[in-house]
Specification:
Order of helices and strands of chain A: EEEHEHEHHH
Largest sheet of chain A: 5 strands, mixed
Number of helices of chain A: 5
Shape of chain A: globular
Oligomer: homodimer
Helix content of chain A: 40-55%
Number of strands of chain A: 5
Number of domains of chain A: 1
CATH superfamily of chain A: Ribonuclease H-like superfamily/Ribonuclease H
Chain lengths: ~170, ~170
């Protein structure tokens, strides 16, 4: 099973891809989609969607995971972010993937054991977990963490279903 | 020139299509894209994008017009709306159209002469302007008004450019 984690943004969108095989999580790739800051917002959405389609076509994930958002004080940036998330959800659906959303806190807690962990903490653990020397793109580490967390959750669900059916 | 006005929403998205020919605005069609309220939000974004792609492919507009949003108190609905707008912008761009945004107030003022006009006022004037007996879908009339307003604006710009180049 291929899981693609996405950290959407209207300028930089991070992504991380893992494969779950025989209960083990294996790192496939991670990276970022950069939009041209000089381009008008609608054009950036086209750039994002087209680039994300390439990611979908390359890795063919069965599951796409996006951060669940709690609206803070900055409604303006949440509104902009909404556009990027819509594009990701649409292309993920077109590519045949199921879309899952998790709160950052749950992901951090699941990956590091601490819901308030720093980005650096998350990266350090991801490196060990996925046997990576380095995570070249800082923006992609949240995406990678989401993909891993989703792998845990699916495993947990599978174990619980097995227990129930005993 | 074909202009497509869009009134995006995460449950109902209205659209209106006009053709500008020899300085006259001609009504082509209007309608709504309905999403299944029982479906999860990400799935609705897929439904919206796929249906909107069909609209783009059917009418092949050179210009797509969307309402410009000013964030009010309800950040939550603005956030949801952002998703729908992102999908529209992306597919509009993929279809080769230029995307334009106008504030509702400007559109109402341009079409009826009054920025505070009611939906009914706008509809009444649209019917006369486009020689329509009825606008079957109430949700599409704002979209149709945007398309018409954009036609006015483009005409105005063309006249001004001609005046400048005299």
């Amino acid at each position: 099973m291929i899981i693609l984690g996405v950290d959407p943004g209207s300028r930089i969108t991070g992504f991380g891809v893992v494969r779950v095989h025989n209960g083990k999580i294996e790192h496939i790739n991670h990276g970022v989609i950069l939009m041209d800051a000089d381009d008008a917002f609608p054009l950036r959405m086209k750039e994002l969607g087209s680039a994300f389609r390439e990611v979908m076509e390359k890795y063919k994930p069965q599951q796409v995971v996006i951060e669940k958002i709690f609206l803070g004080k900055n409604a303006d940036s949440a509104f902009k972010l909404g556009h990027a998330r819509g594009v990701i959800m649409y292309e993920a659906g077109l590519g045949g993937a199921e879309v899952q959303e998790y709160a950052t806190r749950s992901v951090k807690k699941g990956v590091t054991g601490n819901g308030g962990a720093s980005k650096e903490d998350v990266q350090a653990i991801l490196k060990v977990m996925l046997s990576l020397k380095t995570i070249s793109r800082i923006d992609a580490s949240d995406a990678l963490a989401m993909a891993c967390y989703h792998a845990f959750e699916m495993k947990k669900k599978a174990i619980m279903q097995r227990a129930v059916s005993l």
